[in-house]
Design brief:
This protein is of the alpha/beta class and 229 residues long. The protein has nine helices and four strands. Keywords: Membrane, Transmembrane, Transmembrane helix.
């Protein structure tokens, strides 16, 4: 299932974040990359899992109350009592189970429901995995001093990640980015993703300037613009 791109940031947000990156990098040899996306994963396996669980539960209920469901089936077939053979009973069970599975799976094609039914820890892991994948492609080892850092925001999961290159990770513990993450999430919750990312970039810049101050040579090796995927 392909991820459908939905824009959550305006042209003004793009300008705001890009300007914040340029300003932060003016004081540090670190390079900040910003990426925002609608959704980090389509969670298609979650739809399959829930459909299977619902079908199994439905089958369990039928197994507990077989007479009720056989009577219901007789009424659907016109009210004639029928002596069900084992093969007919099994066929009816499989049809019932298959119908429940298909109906549930179709219902779960609605993305908001699928995301709502995805456990929080799964969303956290997949957003993190997506951030790391993007970091490896566009940021890791792309700077001379290995001082690249990615700020990644996934809107529908309400999650953000900061992934740093080797030199930064060796000096800056993950919890140091806490204030930047709080500023980002608080603004996103209030409908200001651009301002949130810009403020997070500003605070990241403060941290980077402390550990990686601007040197005599400070080439701009990574894009300053906000990347929307």
């Amino acid at each position: 299932m392909a991820l459908r791109k939905i824009s959550h940031v305006s042209a003004a947000d793009h300008q705001l974040v890009s300007a914040a990156v340029a300003e932060a990098e003016h004081h540090t040899s670190g390079e900040i990359v910003t990426i925002v996306t609608d959704l980090s994963d389509d969670y298609s396996d979650i739809a399959l899992t829930w459909a299977s669980i619902i079908a199994f539960l439905a089958l369990s209920v039928v197994a507990i109350f077989p007479d009720f469901y056989l009577g219901l089936l007789d009424r659907v077939l016109g009210g004639w009592e029928h002596e069900w053979t084992a093969s007919e009973y099994l066929a009816a069970l499989f049809l019932f189970m298959g119908g429940k599975w298909l109906g549930s799976w179709l219902l779960l094609q609605w993305t908001p429901l699928r995301i709502a039914l995805t456990p929080k820890h799964i969303k956290m892991r997949r957003v993190r995995a997506r951030a790391i994948d993007l970091f490896k492609v566009g940021t890791e080892s792309k700077t001379t001093g290995r001082t690249g850092v990615l700020l990644y925001l996934s809107m529908r999961e309400h999650r953000a990640e900061i992934v740093a290159d080797e030199a930064i990770a060796s000096k800056v513990a993950p919890e140091i980015w806490g204030d930047a993450m709080i500023a980002l999430i608080d603004n996103v919750r209030e409908g200001r993703p651009g301002e949130g990312m810009a403020e997070a970039v500003r605070q990241m810049g403060v941290v980077l300037a402390e550990h990686f101050p601007k040197g005599s040579e400070n080439p701009n090796e990574l894009p300053d613009r906000l990347i929307e995927i």
